[in-house]
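sorry for the late reply, my laptop died twice this morning and i had to redo everyting from scratch. anyway the thing you sent over, i finally got around to it. pasting the sequence first so we're on the same page, its 255 residues, then the predicted structure underneath. double check i copied it right bc i was rushing
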Amino acid sequence: MEEVTKVFGEGTVALEQLSMEVRPNEIVCLLGPSGCGKSTVLNLIAGFEFPTSGEVSLDGRSILKPGPDRGVIFQEHALFPWLNVEQNIAFGKKLRGGVGDEVRYGGSVKKYVELMGLNSFERHYPRQLSGGMKQRVAIARVLVNEPEVMLMDEPFAALDAQTRLSMQMLLLGVWERLRTTILFITHDIDEAVFLGDRIYVMTARPGRIKTLIPVPLGRPRYYEMVLSTAFNETKARIFELIKEETKTFMNRIEN
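ok and here's the structure:
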């Protein structure tokens, strides 16, 4: 994203001169105070919205519409309730390849069923699954299309703490195998430090990049790292940045 500004409606500036990049095969996390425009960033990269000025591109190609090269995972799983697990995962492949192409993409569907730990759940419908299982299906449905970039908009926010941790570990395990480029939006500082290679911290609205923080943790990641000095120093630094922006925003409202 190069000097991107996004204005909604009659002058609501959501993003202002925002520039950032996501490098191949890394996990970049985007953090900021509530309402700073994190989801707007994701929608612009996904092609759901378009910048008022500036440019959004992927590998030098301007993003003009949604496409299978950018897979999106929402906070809500957005599964089709009338399709079972296997059918939900296959949906994108079937849509692009046609009903008669099932033999070709059947192997890919099976691969991601196994990768996401969904064996023996292939015939289950969304109503029969837990929240964590539904998000596993949603992730598999994106990965089966082999996108260049996976865009994740607070995908674990609605999960309980234990399920959220298991999903973080699962995502890291999948990333270690596939090395899919990921932009991960979250409001959780611990989650960003645990998952990310680099973290962009945004300002309060209008959203700009306040700072970029490299995460000083090696890979593969282990949950014991959350007890390390490097983890907690990085967390404390980000907390102070977010607190500073929240204070600035509240002062702006009061004045």
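The helical segments are 38-46, 85-97, 102-115, 131-143, 161-178, 189-195, 229-254.
thats about all i looked at so far, will dig more tmrw
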